[in-house]
């Protein structure tokens, strides 16, 4: 069986407020998890996404970064998915598609692969980078662009 590793690194324990202590002692947390069995089905059949009513705010300073202050994702995941859907599709407050609640997204149009720009918000996942590298090695055209929700019907597939 395959597993995934989750690594969390914090600056350690501090006092009250936001200012870090003068001396920090980082904390590392490592956990190992079985890869969910439904991933294999998703790889074969694809997934069905429902657009979340919760939008991501714009924060270019944190855009692309994976951090522990993902309160918008907590809110998104607190809503049960309607039957027949596998995950939430998440837009920003300007109605640009950004990601799903737990993964990056890619769209295909002809010989072009487009992934949403994460310049304003969203997480640049580890697998997103690996997919982009693999596509470049295959001489595929990959572009990071804003993808307005109204443009989804223009793509051949996702």
From TrEMBL:
<comment type="pathway">
    <text>Cofactor biosynthesis; tetrahydrofolate biosynthesis; 4-aminobenzoate from chorismate: step 2/2.</text>
</comment>
<protein>
    <recommendedName>
        <fullName>Aminodeoxychorismate lyase</fullName>
        <ecNumber>4.1.3.38</ecNumber>
    </recommendedName>
</protein>
<comment type="subunit">
    <text>Homodimer.</text>
</comment>
<dbReference type="InterPro" id="IPR018300">
    <property type="entry name" value="Aminotrans_IV_CS"/>
</dbReference>
<comment type="similarity">
    <text>Belongs to the class-IV pyridoxal-phosphate-dependent aminotransferase family.</text>
</comment>
<keyword id="KW-0456">Lyase</keyword>
<dbReference type="InterPro" id="IPR001544">
    <property type="entry name" value="Aminotrans_IV"/>
</dbReference>
<keyword id="KW-0289">Folate biosynthesis</keyword>
<dbReference type="GO" id="GO:0008153">
    <property type="term" value="P:4-aminobenzoate biosynthetic process"/>
</dbReference>
<keyword id="KW-0663">Pyridoxal phosphate</keyword>
<dbReference type="GO" id="GO:0005829">
    <property type="term" value="C:cytosol"/>
</dbReference>
<dbReference type="InterPro" id="IPR043132">
    <property type="entry name" value="BCAT-like_C"/>
</dbReference>
<dbReference type="GO" id="GO:0046656">
    <property type="term" value="P:folic acid biosynthetic process"/>
</dbReference>
<dbReference type="InterPro" id="IPR043131">
    <property type="entry name" value="BCAT-like_N"/>
</dbReference>
<dbReference type="InterPro" id="IPR036038">
    <property type="entry name" value="Aminotransferase-like"/>
</dbReference>
<dbReference type="InterPro" id="IPR050571">
    <property type="entry name" value="Class-IV_PLP-Dep_Aminotrnsfr"/>
</dbReference>
<dbReference type="InterPro" id="IPR017824">
    <property type="entry name" value="Aminodeoxychorismate_lyase_IV"/>
</dbReference>
<dbReference type="Pfam" id="PF01063">
    <property type="entry name" value="Aminotran_4"/>
</dbReference>
<dbReference type="GO" id="GO:0008696">
    <property type="term" value="F:4-amino-4-deoxychorismate lyase activity"/>
</dbReference>
<dbReference type="GO" id="GO:0030170">
    <property type="term" value="F:pyridoxal phosphate binding"/>
</dbReference>
């Amino acid at each position: 069986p395959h597993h995934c590793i989750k690594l969390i690194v914090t600056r350690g324990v501090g006092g009250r407020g936001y200012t870090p202590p003068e001396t920090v002692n980082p904390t590392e947390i490592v956990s190992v998890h079985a890869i969910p069995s439904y991933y294999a089905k998703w790889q074969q059949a694809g997934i069905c996404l429902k657009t979340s009513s919760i939008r991501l705010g714009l924060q270019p300073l944190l855009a692309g970064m994976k951090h522990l202050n993902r309160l918008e994702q907590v809110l998104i995941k607190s809503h049960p998915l309607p039957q027949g859907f596998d995950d939430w599709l998440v837009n920003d407050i300007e109605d640009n598609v950004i990601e799903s609640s737990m993964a990056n997204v890619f769209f295909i149009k002809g010989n072009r692969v487009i992934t949403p720009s994460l310049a304003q918000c969203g997480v640049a996942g580890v697998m997103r980078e690996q997919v982009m590298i693999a596509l470049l090695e295959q001489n595929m055209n990959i572009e990071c662009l804003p993808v307005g929700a109204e443009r989804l019907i223009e793509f051949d597939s996702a």
